[in-house]
Write a structure and sequence with these properties.
alpha+beta, 2 domains, single chain, two-stranded antiparallel sheet, 4 helices
């Protein structure tokens, strides 16, 4: 039973996919490019996207800094608010660092 054609003209059998999934590894085609990854560490930790929980913690921390500075009565809450909004806009719209600095 063939699941589909791959680049390079190869094919994948159901048994190959099942054994790859059972071993927790990643399956690769003839070209060496991965077409099915079954591990969570396919991307190095320094390059992976943030999880939803990590993003929530970051945004909560930024909001806490703004609240703390505002409650203390200092003027530092304004730059903290600006930075918090810049992080959120950057993430929401997928902006690059240079694009954020040009805002």
């Amino acid at each position: 039973m063939t699941l589909g054609r791959l680049r390079g003209g190869g094919s994948v059998s159901a048994a190959g996919v099942a054994s790859g999934l059972a071993s927790g590894g990643s399956l690769r085609g003839r070209s060496g490019r991965g077409f099915l990854s079954t591990t969570d560490d396919a991307v190095p930790p320094g390059r992976r996207a943030f999880t939803t929980a990590e993003l929530q913690r970051l945004f909560d921390h930024l909001d806490d800094v703004v609240d703390r500075e505002h409650a203390a009565g200092t003027k530092r809450w304004l730059p903290a608010q600006r930075d918090s909004l810049a992080f959120k806009v950057c993430y929401a719209y997928g902006l690059r660092r240079r694009e954020v600095t040009m805002l």
